[in-house]
Write a structure and sequence with these properties.
Layout lengths: L1 H16 L3 H6 L5 E3 L5 H19 L19 H21 L2 H55 L2 E3 L1
Antiparallel strand pairs: 1-2
Length: 161
């Protein structure tokens, strides 16, 4: 049971951070086999040289975070509270004209909070779309980097999977 809840928590955390499991697997580095009798030291040297070359060719550094992926931190509740305050002020004025400023303020606050909530949800959707686009570009860059690295290693006599 503990293992199942851990897996569920991990999956939820990945989704909340915008990391899709299938995308993480798509950027897996190629696996290198020494097919020409290369020693471990030679393979390590060749891998270092090929990683450097792949970085120069693609501008991609595998250890870096996806650019723009996490987005800017947001102020929680600001659109809703701001909408409620604006709505209350407008409602109070309208209510005062009609003879009941308190009732008008309450109705205005409710309508303003609802409008703020709609704006906040729209902003979240826009941020999610931007994050998905940034992640797609990051995945494409990682794919090009992995192809360059694999080509270099194959050129040095390694089998690449």
């Amino acid at each position: 049971m503990l293992k199942r809840s851990f897996v569920i928590s991990l999956a939820a955390a990945s989704l909340l951070c915008g990391v899709h499991i299938r995308q993480a697997a798509a950027q897996a580095a190629p696996i290198i086999y020494p097919s020409g009798g290369q020693s471990l030291d030679q393979q390590a040297a060749d891998e270092g040289a090929c990683r450097s070359w792949a970085q120069q060719q693609t501008g991609m550094y595998p250890g870096q975070a996806a650019p723009g992926y996490y987005g800017a931190p947001q102020q929680q509740g600001a659109p809703v509270l701001g909408g409620a305050a604006r709505g209350a002020a407008i409602g109070a004025v309208g209510g005062a004209i009609a003879g009941d400023a308190g009732k008008g303020a309450g109705m205005g606050a409710a309508m303003g909070a609802t409008a703020g909530l709609f704006r906040k949800n729209q902003q979240r959707r826009q941020e999610a779309n931007a994050n998905e686009q940034a992640m797609a570009a990051y995945q494409a860059d990682m794919g090009r980097y992995n192809q360059a690295f694999a080509a270099c290693m194959q050129g040095r006599g390694y089998t690449v999977r």
